[in-house]
């Protein structure tokens, strides 16, 4: 007995529709906080890195933001321990980008 036959037995009044279901795709909104995000510069293993910290929203949003930044500036990086770590010194560009998205930023170090 096929799955379709089993479903007909369970739901005899149901009629099969071949029209695709309409789903509304809503763009995900990032949580914009009042406190500034910290943008700092460090050298790790002799290489320059930009670190963004201080996000108060959920980690999934911060990971999404990390992905957007990496794609926008075509740089490597990662998300670890509540921080976005970007390879290279991109503080000014990242701060400008975050401010355009409505975030407040604070430059730390160097």
Average pLDDT taken over every residue: 84
Radius of gyration: 23 Å
> Unreliable segments (pLDDT under 50, ≥5 consecutive)?
none
Q: Count of DSSP helices?
A: 3
Main beta-sheet strand count, sense and barrel state: 5 strands, mixed
Helicity level, as a percent range? Answer: 25-40%
**What separation lies between the terminal Cα atoms?**
71 Å
Total strand segments: 5
What structural category characterises the helix and strand content? alpha+beta
What is the succession of H and E elements?
HEEHEEHE
Q: Using the alpha-carbon principal axes, give the shape.
A: elongated
- The quaternary state of the protein chains shown equals single chain
Give an overview of the whole structure.
The chain has 110 residues and is an alpha+beta fold. 30% of the residues lie in helices and 25% in strands. The protein is built from 3 helices and 5 strands. Strands 3-4-2-1-5 form a 5-stranded mixed sheet. A hairpin with a 2-residue loop joins β1 and β2 (47-53). It is elongated. The model has no long low-confidence stretch (mean pLDDT 84).
Provide the descriptors you would attach to this structure in a database record.
alpha+beta, five-stranded mixed beta sheet, 3 helices
How are the SSEs ordered, and which strands pair?
Layout: H1 3-10, E1 37-44, E2 47-53, H2 59-73, E3 77-80, E4 83-87, H3 91-100, E5 105-108
What is this entry, summarized?
The protein is of the alpha+beta class.
């Amino acid at each position: 007995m096929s799955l379709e036959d089993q479903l007909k037995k369970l739901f005899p009044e149901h009629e099969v529709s071949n029209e695709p279901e309409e789903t509304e795709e809503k763009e995900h909104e990032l949580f914009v906080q009042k406190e500034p995000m910290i943008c700092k510069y460090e050298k790790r293993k002799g290489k320059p890195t930009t670190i963004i910290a201080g996000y108060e929203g959920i980690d999934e949003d911060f990971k999404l933001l990390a992905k957007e930044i990496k794609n926008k500036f075509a740089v490597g990086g990662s998300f670890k321990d509540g921080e976005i770590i970007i390879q290279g010194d991109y503080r000014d560009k990242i701060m400008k980008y975050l401010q355009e998205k409505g975030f407040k930023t604070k430059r730390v170090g160097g």
